[in-house]
Amino acid sequence: MDSFLLHPKLVHLPIALAVLMPLVSGSVLLAMSRGWFQRRVWSLVVGLQVILFASGVLAMRTGETDEERVERVVPESAIESHEEAAEPFVWASGLLVLLGTLPLVLRGARASQLAAIATVAGTLVVLGLGWRVGQSGGELVYRHGAAAAFVNQAAPPGSGARVGTVDDDDR
User: Fold this and answer.
1) Is 143 part of a structural domain of the chain?
2) Would the pTM of this model clear 0.85, i.e. be above it?
3) Which of 4, 46, 52, 94 is the most buried (most CB within 10 A)?
4) Calpha distance 79→22 (Å, rounded)
5) Using an 8 Å Cβ cutoff, are 52 and 21 in contact?
6) What is the mean pLDDT of residues 66-91?
7) Cα 21 vs. chain centroid, distance in angstroms?
8) Total count of domains within the chain
9) Which residue has the higher pLDDT, 19 or 151?
């Protein structure tokens, strides 16, 4: 399977998790501070952050694989802008995995709570970085036409598909 089928599918998971993580981590922290949840429930936050990081790494790798093909239709500067936005997003989410484990391993209640608060704050930073990645990725597709790099130049005979045409119902 070509990576171009994977990258557009993979990029949505880390972005969606970046949006959800401040809500999830903040809610779990609030519930823990009120005594509604035990500290081990914080593992959910860490697990989701691991998924965000892993899916971000996979999205970055499949994007790197697609880069040469997309460079044929998109200015290299636009691709570099997207890459430069993606790298800090992914690496910050990885650092947040490490920071997020501290509330589970620290012995002192105050230190554990401070690490959890720092983790929640970090999810807001990752959200901002993810917003930049999504913005630049959207520009690649919708402004610069990156998807055109993957459109067949000719439709298969008998498919009824017309490449590069717009029907009345498409407007």
Assistant:
1) yes
2) no
3) 52
4) 28
5) yes
6) 87
7) 11
8) 1
9) 19
